[in-house]
Amino acid sequence: xxxxxxxxxxxxxxxxxxxxxxxxxxxxxxxxxxxxxxxxxxxxxxxxxxxxxxxxxxxxxxxxxxxxxxxxxxxxxxxxxxxxxxxxxxxxxxxxxxxxxxxxxxxxxxxxxxxxxxxxxxxxxxxxxxxxxxxxxxxxxxxxxxxxxxxxxxxxxxxxxxxxxxxxxxxxxxxxxxxxxxxxxxxxxxxxxxxxxxxxxxxxxxxxxxxxxxxxxxxxxxxxxxxxxxxxxxxxxxxxxxxxxxxxxxxxxxxxxxxxxxxxxxxxxxxxxxxxxxxx
DNA sequence: CAGGCAATAT
DNA sequence: CATATTGCCT
Length: 280
What we know:
The protein is α/β, with parallel strands linked by helices. It has helices at residues 32-44, 55-64, 84-94, 108-116, 129-133, 136-145, 195-208, 215-222, 229-245, and strands at 24-28, 48-52, 71-74, 99-103, 121-124, 153-154, 157-158.
């Protein structure tokens, strides 16, 4: 009597102690009026709102982690340097937060593009109170299913419940953002250590000196958005293992990580240089 | 909490 | 099969 499963067919272990009250919302909108309005609506729904005007601010807030946001609500009209899709990409890459797009643009194909990129909802302006009130659902969904709603079907391999996510095609060095015709092909959820990325890694390790090359430091030095400590730790492990395979144990300080020709020859790392200007 | 390492997963 | 991710232990 107490438990009311979301879906009788699929008993998820969530005893819904979920409480929409006070959910932390990051609101990004550079239109003062719109921002104010939406902010008011959110507040009157008892959400805890943090309004900001530009993606750069938003990213700072998200990355610094001081506030544990539950959901991001964002507009799409930002300065020439940034656009909604691009911003969405970054958020999806760096966080697992549900992202709701708010825009006056209501043409289906545009909306589809956002949804395809991982937005969990698209609210055409003017935003109705009704919609705002129900926003908690997206957070709840994430809580219940553990991760994203995006499900990748690649090569007929259905992604299981908890993985489809991040990564997006990005040219390694020349950041070409196709504004209108972004291709949504080539999603992989595994980080790929391209030569370029590996090089950054090597540089960082060299700078630190192999003895001080711990994941955290290396990560900081590499300064690659979206790269996580675990990634570096893992890579550190792999490269270390490589070294001991064919390096004379005599050289204590000579790191030999970039091997002649033996690393991976792939090229598929989604991080596009500095999409926004995360300078530091 | 962070780092190493081993077990999984893709 | 290679290697990236997760988990466990220190």
